[in-house]
Description:
The protein is mainly α and 167 residues long. The protein contains four helices and no strands. The radius of gyration is 57 Å and the shape is rod-shaped.
Amino acid sequence: MWTLRNIAGGVLSVLVLGGCAADPTNDPRSGGFFGGVRGLAAGDYDMRQQALQGQRDDSLNQLSALQEEGEALETERQMKASEVAAQRRQLAALKARNRELAGRINQLQRSKAATEQRTAELRHKQQRLTRGIQEFETQLDRGQLTAAQADSKRLSLERQYDAIKDL
């Protein structure tokens, strides 16, 4: 039994001496039973638990920071979406005003075309009247008309003038 006692004492002294120095890199899952006993005695478990809690706290802090950043980005996205919506409304109003302007231009072009056509008709009638007046003047100068014919021709030319003037 002495030998068993000596062996147990030696193992116990190794464990006690090994337990005095804590090793934070010691993984309690490795090393078997004696490694576990040594980890408990040396405080490796506590140090590992503190390190893991520190990592967890860091991860929670990072998660909180990311959530805050996500909320800030969402707020910014909503503001941008509001700005885009406002720009789209303004663009729609501008497009409507542009369509109105195009309609007015088309109306003016139609009016211009009608005016040009009316102007051409008036010019044609006025030129016909001018030719009639010149013809009447030539006939008067040559003495080709009687007084009654001259009165009739002059009245006809005056009616043409009145018809043109009233258009």
